[in-house]
Amino acid sequence: MAELNISLSEVINLIVASDSIPKGICNIEPLGESFSFEFKTGLFFPKFVKIHVNLIEFEKGIFVLELITDWFADKVMKLLPFRDNEFIEYDFPRLIINLQHLLAEKINGLQIEQIEYQNSKFKILFNC
User: Fold this and answer.
1) d(C-alpha 92, C-alpha 74), whole Å
2) Strand (E) or helix (H) holding 38
3) What pTM does this model have?
């Protein structure tokens, strides 16, 4: 059994490195227990919208995040078609990420037993 203690910023870096971020998301900035990013709309105007994300809940390896935008970005985001994938479910303004499934799929040779979140840190237990 191995244990890894990492921050939300480090988890975001893992997700980015695993190439699991949908195309169009860029300039991700970790901000403690939240983060922000720019989303490329594919529209002539606006080309990008800034989105702030708060961690609402983390339970059983699943992130529940809330997307916070300004009024204009909110209207644009509701118009855009988003595709869920095996790790991410999108229901504006909520974003649900199955971190345990994502890490298990992307980290070969390790079996994730449990993920806990407390004191601004993730504690990930692996069975090696």
Assistant:
1) 9
2) strand 34-40
3) 0.76
